[in-house]
Amino acid sequence: MTTVDLRGVTCPTNFVKAKLALEMVDAGEVIEFLLDDGEPVKNVPRSLKGEGHKLLGLKEAGGYYILTLEKGEE
């Protein structure tokens, strides 16, 4: 599984980087994003879901969050 560390990356740059990472994997693949608390954990999952990706989980992990999603169809 691919993990993309977006901690310390501000909005909307973190969403742009998440989209770029998703372009590198095939539809149906699972990818993890590490996100900061606050705006990133609110905005990035919502935006990616709006792009057609399937949210599989979001869990706190000691000061940051791990977002797991499945890439949607192109």
TrEMBL record:
The family note in this entry says:
Belongs to the sulfur carrier protein TusA family.
Question: PANTHER family, from UniProt?
Answer: SSL1707 PROTEIN, SULFUR CARRIER PROTEIN YEDF-RELATED
> What is this protein called in UniProt?
tRNA methyltransferase
One Pfam family per UniProt:
TusA
Q: Which UniProt keywords apply?
A: Methyltransferase, Transferase
**Gene Ontology annotations of biological process type:** methylation
Q: Which GO terms describe its molecular function?
A: methyltransferase activity
Q: Which CDD domains match?
A: SirA_YedF_YeeD (cd00291)
Q: Which domain of life is it from?
A: Bacteria
Q: Which InterPro entries match?
A: TusA-like (IPR001455), TusA-like_sf (IPR036868)
Residue ranges occupied by any UPF0033 domain in the UniProt entry: 3-71
Q: Show the SUPFAM superfamilies listed in the entry.
A: SirA-like (SSF64307)
